[in-house]
Write a structure and sequence with these properties.
Chain lengths: ~220, ~230
């Protein structure tokens, strides 16, 4: 538990002092929103709003990849990753510390992106803010869990920036589909469909367990 | 060094070529479908390839898991060999599918649950091969590959549920039940499955031999130069 707290605290303090990762993610997300608006401007009427949840989650996903790539790249400086793998205690706690830190950053960026997205696409998120925050958090949990595991792998490959999305995106489909359907339900009908919520919860549980167990094998001895 | 013995290779090769000949004859003499015409004969190739592809993916994860458990390099070689053969069979399946689809559905592709899952699974295993290619160090490559292969297989049911929920339009036929094939079509279909499975076994054994030889070459290079060679499984 101490290991978890130490890793989480280290990551958050590093980010607070530098603020480079979260700023880069937020600016990138904003750019994605602008590009998406230009590529697919929403029309008038309910039907044109159907693609909006999907576009929003595209922005979240791209921003998350940018941030997750940095998560372990930071640890390469001064060979901190080797030191981290030598830490005594369950390596799963290192994973949890990193994943929670990534989740916090991603959730912050999601809040900013949602605001920008709402303004650009003319969507009022206020009436559904609490439920939407829950959906965004569930999506961010899935992205952070798998992203942290694969980021630890990708950082050890020769094409690490390219490798992370290649590894992560095909496995993110259940999270993205669940999150998009849940957001769609909220925006169009004001309720989260039960099946989407179920999918998000189950997927997060499965991802969490796989990533927690798999992380042991991913860190070098 | 543990290269599979020649009988293993001869047995799988012999089985493959024998069944291949029988299958070719059976497909040739099978009746032509009254509705779809001659294009229906893809039935004897396409679903068997799908069985082979999925067998490859499950073997990759299974052998990957055994590698993580036992730490024996041989399991990693089997895992990589299964993945490469699985990707090959999946490529052939994804090529034959659209040909059949264009002939019967009138379009090359449909975002049906089964097609989507297979495409995603294909992308997962392409990413698996890229991951192995871009990772340095054979031991690390084996560990990363095993973790990714297991994650890829565990997610098949989740993907299935997700895509069913999102799309819900099934155009691809369900599994073939008893009696769903016309008279004279059952035997070539069964032989097609045996052909693909024996081809799978033969190719995996050959690929395993290559992996063993490469590891041996790398070991000799290290011995000769005193530095780690560029070869990896």
């Amino acid at each position: 538990m101490n290991l978890l707290r130490a890793v989480l605290w280290k990551d958050l303090v590093t980010e607070w002092r530098q603020r480079d990762r979260v700023v880069a993610m937020a600016v990138f997300a904003l750019l994605v929103v602008v590009i998406l608006y230009m590529a697919a401007p929403p029309g008038i009427g309910a039907e044109s709003q159907q693609h909006v949840p999907g576009l929003l989650w595209v922005a979240f996903t791209f921003a998350s990849i940018l941030g997750l790539n940095r998560s372990f790249a930071l640890e390469l400086e001064n060979d901190a990753l080797a030191a981290l793998s030598m830490a005594s205690g369950d390596r799963g706690f290192i994973f949890l510390g990193k994943a929670i830190a990534n989740f916090v950053l991603l959730f912050g960026v999601q809040a900013f992106t949602t605001g920008a997205f709402g303004m650009a696409f003319g969507i009022d998120f206020w009436p559904i803010l609490h439920q939407f925050a829950a959906v965004a958090a569930l999506g961010a949990l899935g992205l952070s869990a798998v992203g942290t595991l694969f980021s630890a792998m990708a950082v050890r490959t020769s094409y690490r920036e390219v490798m992370l999305p290649l590894l992560m995106l095909p496995l993110m489909v259940p999270v993205l589909l669940g999150a998009v359907r849940a957001t769609e339900g909220l925006l169009l009908d004001g309720v989260i469909p039960g099946s989407a919520l179920q999918l998000l919860v189950v997927t997060n549980a499965v991802f969490g367990i796989i990533s927690y167990l798999g992380f042991e094998a991913v860190l070098d001895e | 060094m543990n290269v599979p013995s020649a009988p293993g290779r001869r047995l799988t090769a012999g089985l493959f070529y024998t069944v291949l000949a029988a299958w070719a004859f059976a497909v040739w003499s099978a009746p032509i479908d009254s509705v779809q015409g001659v294009i229906q004969k893809i039935l004897y190739v396409h679903p068997p390839l799908a069985f082979g592809a999925y067998l490859g993916f499950f073997c990759t994860a299974l052998f990957g898991g055994l590698y993580l458990w036992k730490g024996d390099d041989r399991w990693d070689r089997w895992s990589l060999s299964s993945a490469e053969v699985g990707v090959l069979l999946c490529t052939l399946m994804l090529l034959t599918g659209p040909i059949w689809a264009k002939g019967t559905w009138g379009k090359w592709w449909s975002w049906d649950t089964r097609l989507t899952i297979t495409l995603l699974q294909y992308l997962v295993y392409l990413a698996y091969l890229l991951l192995r290619g871009f990772t340095e160090g054979s031991e690390r490559t084996a560990r990363f590959g095993a973790v990714y292969a297991i994650a890829g297989v565990v997610l098949i049911p989740l993907n299935y549920f997700a895509i069913e929920m999102a799309a819900g339009r099934a155009i691809h036929p369900e599994n073939l039940g008893d009696g769903s094939l016309g008279a004279g079509m059952g035997m070539p279909f069964l032989l097609g499955i045996v052909v693909v499975l024996s081809a799978f076994a033969y190719l995996v054994v050959r690929r395993y031999e290559v992996a063993c030889l490469r590891d041996e070459a790398a070991r000799r290079e290290v011995e000769a130069t005193g530095s780690e060679g560029a070869w990896a499984t």
